[in-house]
Amino acid sequence: MTGATSGIGAAVARRLVLGGACVALMGRREHRLVELADELRPDASGRILPVAVDVTDPKALARAAATVHSGLGRVDLVVANAGAMLGAPFETAETSEWDRMLDVNLRGLLHTGRAFADDLLTAAQNGPADLVHIGSVGGHDLYPNWSVYCATKAAVAHLTRNLRAELGPRNVRVHIVEPGVTATELGDDMLDGDMRTVLAQMRTGLQPLSADDIAESVAYTVMAPANVNIAELIVVPVQLG
User: Fold this and answer.
1) Distance (Å, rounded) from C-alpha 170 to C-alpha 186?
2) pTM summary value
3) Tell me, what's the pLDDT at 106?
4) Contact in structure between 136 and 201 (CB atoms under 8 Å)
5) 25 in Cβ contact with 36 (< 8 Å)
6) What is the DSSP letter of 68?
7) What values do phi and psi take at 127, rounded to 5?
8) Would you state the pLDDT for residue 239?
9) Mean pLDDT in each 10-residue stretch from start to end of the chain (241 residues)?
10) Distance separating alpha carbons of residues 204 and 173, to the nearest angstrom
11) Strands 129-134 and 77-80: what pairing?
């Protein structure tokens, strides 16, 4: 479970623990991972392993995967959730923010799947094995001033479709869960102050989804019967229609 330090990642981890799973909590902020692990252990029937890692570092991810394998055994579910959402007008955006979104949203997701691919393929020989990508409705719709973010999520959506065709015949289910407006800290670190205001207004202008809503959506996806792949799940607030 990447991006487990807050928001959707932490909520999915809680939901999986509730379901009895052993869970590896992966993210950059080690103190938050440790706090979450301490919070979850009293109610956990499976083991919980906090692993600090930056998904933009492929070598660190490979080491983290080895730590998870050693601590929890073979992995049969990977949730690639780590992400960055940084908006700005195209002509004034800090290109360092573009690089960060490409590194986290796309390259980090790619290397996360690669780090655990062998485990998933092995697990799939004996039961369900799932790779879940957390995308966004931004991968389909038009959002001015969020162009690069939306482009990364569109890439994730099409990557998921192709991996489904590649890994599905080998019994690995590949899914994408694509939330609409969700109340998390995602985007709080944008450099563009006007866009931070826009994002806050998006979240207060209707009843947004919660991180727990997305966690339930992920659980629904991976708890489907073994021969069922809920391939693409778009999740939006009711008020968006």
Assistant:
1) 34
2) 0.96
3) 98
4) no
5) yes
6) H
7) 170, -170
8) 87
9) 96 96 97 97 95 97 96 97 97 98 98 98 96 97 96 98 98 98 93 95 91 98 97 94 73
10) 35
11) parallel
What does the pLDDT read at residue 65? 97
Closest C-alpha among 17, 15, 19, 13 to residue 1? 13
Residue in the block written with tokens 């623990």: 17
Please give the biggest Cα pair distance in the chain.
Answer: 52
d(CA 34, CA 49): 9
Q: Is 143 a catalytic residue?
A: no
Nearest to 156 by CA among 129, 180, 134: 134
Inter-CA distances, 103 with 89, 107, 108, 123, 236, Å:
20, 5, 6, 28, 26
The 10 Å Cβ neighbour count of residue 39 is 15
Which string of DSSP letters, residue by residue, matches 101-169? HIIIIIIIHHHHHHHHHHHHHHHTTTS-EEEEEE--GGGTS--TT-HHHHHHHHHHHHHHHHHHHHHGG
Q: Find tokens 């999986």 and name the residue.
A: 16
Q: Among residues 13, 149, 182, 221, which one is catalytic?
A: 149
Do residues 211 and 8 touch, judged by C-beta distance below 8 A? yes
Residues 6+ apart with CB under 8 A from 102: 148, 152
Calpha distance 10→215 (Å, rounded): 9
Q: Which of 48, 60, 47, 138 is nearest to 101 (CA)?
A: 138
